[in-house]
Amino acid sequence: MVNALKKIMDLHTLTIQEASELLKSKKISSVELTQAILQRAHDVDPKVKSYVTITDDLALEQAKQADERIAKGENITPLTGIPFAMKDCISTRGVKTTCSSKILENYVPQYNATVTNKLADAGAVLVGKTNMDEFGMGSSCENSAFFNTHNPWNLDHVPGGSSGGSASAMSASLATFTIGEDTGGSVRMPAGFCNVTGIKPTYGRVSRYGLISLVSSFDCIGPMTRDAYDCATVLEAIAGHDEKDSTTYNSTVPSYTKNINKSVKGMKLGIPKEYFVSGMEAGVESSIQEAIRTYEKLGMEIHEVSLPTTQYGLPVYYLLLFAEASSNLARFDGTRFGLSKSENAKDVIDIYLQTRREGFGDEVKRRIMLGAYALSAGYYDDYYLKAQKVRTLLRRDFETAFSKVDILLAPTCPTTAFKLGEKTSDPLEMYLSDIYVVATNPAGVPAMALPCGFSKDMPVGMQLIGKHLDEQTIFQVGHAYQQVTDWHKQNPPL
């Protein structure tokens, strides 16, 4: 009885690979695994606050269906029966999808995102929707309209953003994997802050249909997991061409796990000199340098490379973000869905203004106004058009670097997770937190964050940046590192 109880209590710590093997061998059931995750979520999440919605009934019903699939031996995938959580900007039919905004507080989609459908088809079990910075606008998960999410490693610190809820839930073992979304580091920054593995795939590798868009030309849905192998497993399930999203690549998705164990010996690892500047936390830099030495011991060739346009990456990213966000968020007008403030309204314009005034938070309003300014007559060429031209130069920088090396390594952030409230009064200081992660989004290249150490008792993350559609190499190099280190196996004291 004691051993059986311990088994159930420990189920929340399993990797996807471990859980899948136990499920297929019928040593555990999906219902048992899901119950363990749900119990963990109800016990721990009041401290962490990673979930906006926990879907107990839906999760248990999906778990029963997964067990039936396994019993029949039909359509079993590596994700069948595996509990996961979804960032709350990805549409889930019949389950609230709020974007952590008052304007969508009670919005229940009538359809699923393509990613939601793919995970359902794989037999995965949805246990809930995770908190985020409102509409993805933030780097700390402090811009949610509902509550702040906390870092499981220190509840006084931020988890990063905007996918802070997904990272926190993964770190605290409140799901076996989570789904985030990365517009300018929104998967990788919180993954680095919370000691989990998370990938931003190549733009167009994963369908954006059903994602409530922030920046249509940047947005990338990506998984967060315990390790690179699990990350590869989930991406393989959700990637692929989608007729509902014209930006998706019409190409075969490789089996990312098939060649993940290949040696990295002889591969060329590029170190961008622009990412190692003054101001980096000493513990972060030492952890990154140790990771580089680890790769050198694994037989990789270390080469310094240059990404000269990096210095313009932050302003380019934010200018384009402001502009596209301003356009995308115009749909929230109080007349079609979501919040509508029509009391004492004189006309449609009045409804529109009242709804947006009361429905959007300060950061969202700030970015809409800046975006409208950048797109306005007389300023379009000076700001938006110029930023698009520099975006092309950013992309060319990566192409030049990848003509010399196989993959790049850089920090995810110059510091570890900062304290709640530390940067909320200074938006510019908050934006600077994104300095190492934003350039990959305008360039469209894939990048994965993974744990590589600790500084001041907080996790340090590094990112591996790859060529277009070459997630395979990223997983291979990340997996090789995790085979000889155990940073990714460390759990917060909860």
What would you note in describing this structure?
The protein has a single domain, classed as Amidase signature (AS) domain (Amidase signature (AS) enzymes), CATH 3.90.1300. The N terminus is likely disordered. It starts with a helix and ends in a 10-residue tail after the last helix. With 494 residues, the protein is an alpha/beta fold. Helix 9 links the parallel strand 7 and strand 8. It is built from 16 helices and eleven strands. Helices cover 39% and strands 13% of the residues. Helix 10 packs across helix 13.
Task: Write a brief structural summary.
With about 500 residues, the protein is α/β, with parallel strands linked by helices. The protein has one domain (about 1-494): Amidase signature (AS) enzymes.
Top keywords for this entry?
alpha/beta; Amidase signature (AS) enzymes; disordered N terminus
Q: What is the H level of CATH, i.e. the homologous superfamily?
A: Amidase signature (AS) domain
Tell me, briefly, the overall form.
globular
Mean pLDDT: 95
Strand order of the largest sheet: 1-3-2-4-6-5-10-11-9-7-8
Query: What pattern of helices and strands is seen along the backbone?
Result: HHHEHEHEHEHEEHEHEHHHHEHHEEH
